[in-house]
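Bump. Still looking for DUF4998 domain-containing protein structure tokens.
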Amino acid sequence: MMKKTKITLFVQLAFALLLICQGCDKMEDSYKQYLEGGELIYPGKADSLKAFPGKNRVKLRWLIVSDPKVVGAKVYWNNKSDSVNVPIRKTSSTDTISVIIPGMEEGLYTFDVYTYDAAGHRSVGSQVIGEAYGASFQNTLANRLVKSVQWLNLAQTGTTPAFRGGEITWYSASVLAVFIDIGYTREDGSAASVREEPVRVPGRPVSFRETTRLPGWNKDLSFRYRTAFKPDSAAIDTFYTDYTVYNPH
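Sorry for the wait, here they are.
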């Protein structure tokens, strides 16, 4: 009985070793395309891969550090059902590669980037998550509200220069606002514009001024303005509200 058990165990062990060897053969076949001179060949991968959000598009940027054999890259998204080829002309130094993927529906995407050489060898993949913004984000935006408008005619006082024109007092601005464009007509009939941008003081949050002055504004005429937004500080596109017309009468 003991002898029969040993024979059975030996047969099972031999069968298991046979399966392992077959698996090794399959793995060897899978990697055969990368073999060159007995070594695995992997082109340099997309290094420091980053994604930048945009309006129905996403920008990807990465580095090719040290592999002169890289001739292109392929970017996949939507579970690799969509892709784009990116030709690369490598130089002797570190190269920055950028590609903008247009026509994206609003939402989050996972991007996989593989580089390849002229022989078709593919690198290890690099992955990043990017986001495209669109109509849904646009519909959340609102123009900054005007609290009051006054016309000033101030004489010079000491080192403070004289001023003649309008002054807008605002309600607070959205934290996503990046600037406000204002268009108006001067007293001499010429067109003028002012761009109000946030104040950046080291150690303090970025914020807009509470007032904006319109030099030479004709107080009998309206002015118009719109607010610009970025959904992210790294976004490649700016979103705008419609113009609001302010009539002083």
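The chain has a mean pLDDT of 87.

Edit: fixed formatting.
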